[in-house]
Amino acid sequence: MAIADVSVTTRTVNHWIGGKLVASQSGRSGTVWNPATGEAQAQVAFASASEVDQAVASAKKAFPEWRATALSRRAEIMFKLRELVDANRRRIAELLTSEHGKTVPDAMGEVARGLENIEFACGIPNLLKGGFSEQSSRGIDVYQIRQPLGVVAGITPFNFPAMVPMWMFANAIACGNTFLLKPSEKDPSVSLFLAELLQRAGLPDGVFSVIQGDRVAVDRLLEHPDVKAVSFVGSTPVARYVYETGTRNGKRVQALGGAKNHMLVLPDADVAMAADAAVSAAYGSAGERCMAISVVVAVGSVADPLVEAIRERLARIKVGPGMEEGSEMGPLITREHRDKVASYVGNATAEGATVTVDGRQDPASQGDGFFLGATLLDNVTPAMRCYKDEIFGPVLGVARVDTYEQALQMINTNPYGNGVAIFTRDGGAARQFQFDVEVGMVGINVPVPVPVSYYSFGGWKTSLFGDLHVYGPEGVQFYTRTKVVTSRWPDPGTSKVDLGFPQVR
Ligand code: NAD
């Protein structure tokens, strides 16, 4: 089917409000592509502001009862959800592959990392424990409790349509909030399957809703007075906009943005291991990961053997449809995105870089699917666009420097600060790097240092707007507010009038 045949596509991806599918009345929609074939496979509804209001009203109505639900019952639902997601790993993965394009094994990895967040939320009774100070003053106890915020929203990107929603909703719901998900319009279907699993796990209607849409839906969520907090993950310009708009409207906002992740390779590194890591981290998911390595910074003599080792490995990468057995790298998300990524390869030579491997020559790049082969650019410098921009595709740059200090300066002056990795055999050098580097997540001989679910995920600089990282302990903090209670059960014998400021006695 060619692009012009969109009209023959009949499946529409709709909203999930109040525990059921709701057909959109907005009259606006977008196309969901099959990136492996270049065909349109569905239409996705774009919510109007009044449809967002309907979802917020349903979430607001569900909040008092959900908030009052026992912690053990909330944990039980999370346990049940854990079982359902586990039992449906393959189905979720195939849904991801069909709309996103990533390979099925990669999609299985996404489900596994999302599941971790549900497992973490199963421990919510323990996570919500407050503190208690007996006898803070004579006959007076002081204690702190954590309470949910109310209706909260999550706005998520196309590259992890299952995992990133799970980063957010597992904790948000377990903490007693009601949650509205606005997934990416590019791969929206998995959100509805997750809604169904939540319902089967026993979650009351209205506690989790899905609003499909574009900027109209996002803007309404950002201005709606009943939405108390917004978690956002996406590109830096939109993250900045969401943070500024949401906070201006009095909301709590965490907005995670884009990235340019460096991998620093010191001269003493194991070259084969560094090359394996660079290739895995740069080209996995076709480079469409916010933790993908996009620049290798090679120090001194390691550069030549490292570039050669990467080049050799690229020749063996099998590019093909994500559903196909043996495919290692799938297509990009849309034709426009593929063309944009390819344009960086086209401009690289004029900028002064060396195109060592040109993915445009890969046979897969010639078909109707949105494929681009693995590309390697050498002699990249910070002045070039291919260094400055987050390319978000299978294009790895190599920057050559003489010293560790030059490498560190390059990384620390980059406006992004999401992830970084160092490859070395020298523990002292790695420790110094961990101390010096201005990046939120650091890997030591680990190229994609996505924290496990009992830590929290977040970058520095323009990779995160807001104070708290997403998921893990900071996620629980984000989705709750604390209340401190000072309590006295009066002993009539000690009661008296005292106009002085309360002091500890
Ligand atoms: P995006 O910013 O285009 O879209 C993210 C979400 O915002 C989507 O739901 C989209 O519908 C909405 N949106 C898009 N434009 C908008 C606008 N002008 N106003 C309001 N809402 C808007 O991002 P994407 O292309 O879906 O995802 C890729 C980006 O996400 C990359 O930059 C990647 O680095 C980043 N990302 C970051 C992390 C992280 O944890 N830091 C994780 C995954 C992805």
Task: Walk me through the structure.
By secondary structure, the protein is of the alpha/beta class. The chain has 2 domains: 268 residues, 3-Layer(aba) Sandwich (Aldehyde Dehydrogenase, Chain A, domain 1); 184 residues, Aldehyde Dehydrogenase, Chain A, domain 2 (3-Layer(aba) Sandwich), CATH 3.40.309.10. The chain has 16 helices and 23 strands. The protein has a 7-stranded mixed β-sheet, sandwiched between helices. Strands 10-9-8-11-12-22 form a 6-stranded mixed β-sheet, sandwiched between helices. Helix 1 packs across helix 8, helix 2 packs across helix 7 and helix 3 packs across helix 4. The longest helix has 20 residues. The relative contact order is 0.13. The N terminus is likely disordered. The chain binds nicotinamide-adenine-dinucleotide.
From the structure above, extract its key features.
505 residues, alpha/beta, Aldehyde Dehydrogenase, Chain A, domain 1, Aldehyde Dehydrogenase, Chain A, domain 2, 2 domains, seven-stranded mixed β-sheet, six-stranded mixed β-sheet, 23 strands, 38% helix, globular, binds nicotinamide-adenine-dinucleotide
CATH architecture of the largest domain: 3-Layer(aba) Sandwich
What spatial order of strands do you see in the largest sheet?
Answer: 15-16-17-14-13-19-20
What's the mean pLDDT score? Answer: 96
Q: Give the termini distance in whole angstroms.
A: 80 Å
Oligomer: single chain
The helix content is: 25-40%
Strand content: 15-25%
Radius of gyration: 25 Å
The number of distinct structural domains comes to 2
The CATH superfamily of the largest domain turns out to be Aldehyde Dehydrogenase, Chain A, domain 1
Ligands, deduplicated: nicotinamide-adenine-dinucleotide
Q: Given the helix and strand composition, which structural class is it? A: alpha/beta
Number of E strands:
23
